[in-house]
From TrEMBL:
Keywords: Glycosidase, Hydrolase, Signal. GO terms for biological process: carbohydrate metabolic process. InterPro entries: Glyco_hydro_43, Glyco_hydro_beta-prop_sf. Residues 1-22 form the signal peptide. Belongs to the glycosyl hydrolase 43 family. It comes from Neohortaea acidophila. This is Glycosyl hydrolase. It comes from the Eukaryota. The keyword Hydrolase applies. GO terms for molecular function: hydrolase activity, hydrolyzing O-glycosyl compounds.
């Protein structure tokens, strides 16, 4: 079956005159759960950044990741900023992805990481360019634009002939480090079915300008060097005040619905690493990065596990994000991840100094909550879908928006804004609502993630406080199908 545009009933934002702007008071706490996985910016668009990392730069937390909205696959790197990890402002692409770059055609500049060089006052971007290796760009701003260097970064020559893969870069005490994996497609131990490749982790120091490695590396593995150690990717790491190195990673998975959560710990780069398995499936996600947050009470650092979540979605663009604080034991080990659906994590932290951004969604009078247990649905060709709400104040409607993603639709998806008398009337035979406006969208007018589209621009419509309002989705797009293999087509 060919499905129409996937509809996510999220931001039922009736924008009335006199909307309230977001507060400029910085927040100092946030509650994360294992079920609230979608993130949105202050304009209501889905955060479109995967394989992402969050850094604190210039008074704001910056979230960087690969964009999937344009093509459905990795295409360029987007950035978002927020002082409180809740109100995210879209900062744009780090470079123009429509112009030739060293990696867009062969990997989308995968899993970007940025570090700041205090000596040169330069932000240094590292990205995975697939078989070409790691590319490096520089900028004077954390949101770019970044200019790529003319050559790829060099790694330990012992890996010549192998493919550099997932990685992370960080700085500690004025020194830069990279932890990276390498893919071995020619191992004689590869299986006919699984594993087809082997992937091992290594760590190197960076040159003083953070644009290259020192060509010397140390393997990150347990003494077992078993299949788990040889199938590691998507790493991130940090060093504690007492000099302990922690490397977190997952097994080879690639934006999947779950992967083994791993932790490696050592007192130096060339020491023996202790390994722990923190979860068998990482709460239905794969590690993206570790987010350090400073506690406002005792200035201690809380380390937050941040992973990509694809909860049954048919493509990476439907992904969400999972956050939870790592819990350390007195011996330095880490407790297992808490993957319970009822788990909630209240974290206090030192917020950024920038004022809270405001946008179309944050200033809307009526709207769905920013944090909720949203799920992707792909059935707008089988059913007419409805979203209803009650006007909280009187005024003129400026616009109504909703989050919709493109699929394989061949007919327009039509959204109709209406007013109705009561829920009993709405479902009663022969009842006719009052139509306020409508809008139609072809697949080409939508993105591959849940961005907002205007369901109705009805500037001449006035409503009274308490009015019942709604909009409908209709867009049948049927084709012959195999009933035994119905699925949502990406």
């Amino acid at each position: 079956m060919h499905w129409t545009a996937s509809a996510l009933l999220l931001l039922s934002a009736a924008l009335l005159g006199g909307g309230v702007e977001a507060s400029s008071s910085p927040a100092s706490s946030i509650v994360w759960t294992n079920t609230q996985r979608f993130l949105f910016d202050v304009d209501g668009n889905q955060i479109d950044a995967y394989g992402s990392k969050i850094n604190l730069f210039q008074g704001s937390y910056y979230l960087y990741g690969n964009s999937f909205s344009t093509t459905g696959s990795a295409f360029g790197i987007k950035s978002y900023s927020s002082p409180d990890l809740k109100h995210w402002k879209y900062e744009g692409f780090l470079y123009d992805p429509t112009t030739p770059s060293p990696c867009d055609a062969i990997g989308g500049c995968g899993r970007p990481h940025i570090v700041f060089n205090s000596e040169s006052k330069t932000y240094v971007l590292w990205a995975n360019a697939g078989s070409a290796g790691y590319i490096v760009g520089t900028s004077t701003s954390p949101s770019g634009p970044f200019t790529f260097l003319n050559q790829t970064a060099a790694i330990d020559p012992q890996f010549d002939g192998l493919q550099p893969a997932d990685f992370a870069v960080e700085t500690f005490n004025g020194k830069g480090y990279i932890v990276f994996s390498v893919l071995n497609f020619r191992s004689p131990n590869a299986g006919s079915i699984w594993p087809p490749i082997f992937q091992t982790l290594h760590i190197s120091e960076l040159t003083p300008d953070y644009t290259n490695t020192t060509l010397t590396s140390y393997r990150v593995t347990s003494p077992a060097m078993d299949l788990i150690d040889q199938e590691t990717e998507s790493p991130d790491f940090f060093v504690t005040e007492n000099g302990t190195f922690y490397v977190f990673a997952s097994n080879t998975c690639g934006y999947c619905n779950g992967s083994i959560a791993l932790m490696y710990r050592a007192n130096s780069l060339n020491a023996t690493w202790d390994r722990q398995i923190l979860s068998g499936y990482s709460c239905n996600g794969q590690l993206e990065g570790i987010l350090p947050l400073q506690s406002p009470q005792n200035k201690a650092i809380d380390y937050i596990w941040h992973s990509t979540s694809v909860p049954g979605g048919p493509r990476t663009g439907f992904s969400g994000h999972i956050f939870q604080p790592l819990q350390f034991a007195s011996d330095g080990s880490v407790h297992d991840l808490n993957c319970a659906s009822s788990a909630a994590f209240n974290v206090s932290f030192v917020s950024g100094s920038d004022s809270l951004p405001s946008g179309v969604a944050s200033s809307a009078v009526d709207g769905s909550p920013m944090f909720a247990d949203y799920e992707a649905v792909c059935d707008s060709d089988q059913f007419t879908l409805y979203q209803t709400w009650q006007a909280s104040q009187s005024g003129s409607i400026k616009s109504v928006s909703v989050n919709v993603a493109s699929s394989v639709q061949t007919v327009p998806l039509t959204m109709t804004l209406f007013k109705f008398n009561s829920y009993q009337h709405l479902t009663a035979p022969e009842y006719k609502w009052t139509t306020y406006g409508s809008a139609s969208y072809n697949a080409s007018a939508l993105t591959f993630v849940f961005d907002t589209v205007v369901a109705s621009n009805s500037s001449n419509v006035t409503v009274s406080k308490g009015d019942l309002l709604g909009y409908s989705f209709a867009g049948a797009d049927f084709a012959p199908k195999d009933w035994g293999r119905t699925r949502c087509v990406a």
